[in-house]
Design goal:
85 residues, alpha+beta, Ubiquitin-like (UB roll), two-stranded antiparallel sheet, 3 helices, 39% helix, Ubiquitin-like_domsf, Atg8-like
Length: 85
């Protein structure tokens, strides 16, 4: 299943289903934080990611998260000096 298909399936979940899922994950991994990332609707400057769901340590800094995100960008033409936000 491609990440686009997985994202469509994830987006079809209700807020309550997402909350139950994140609560289950937090109970199983208390030292980790589930994060869901996606591009904004009109943003074509940032390429698609290989994954959109991440389970990261609770003490992970934003700069470290950005490094992880940059490693998961599909497009080999992506200019790493370009801002992601």
């Amino acid at each position: 299943m491609s990440s686009t298909d997985e994202l469509a399936k994830f987006n079809s979940l209700t807020k309550e289903e997402r909350l139950m899922s994140s609560t289950r994950i937090r109970a199983k991994y208390p030292q980790k934080v589930p994060i869901v990332l996606h591009r904004s609707a009109g943003n074509t400057a940032v390429p698609e990611l290989n994954r959109f769901r991440y389970l990261v340590p609770s003490d992970l800094r934003v700069s470290e998260l950005i490094t992880v995100i940059r490693r998961n960008i599909k497009d080999p033409k992506f200019d790493e000096s370009k801002a992601l936000f």
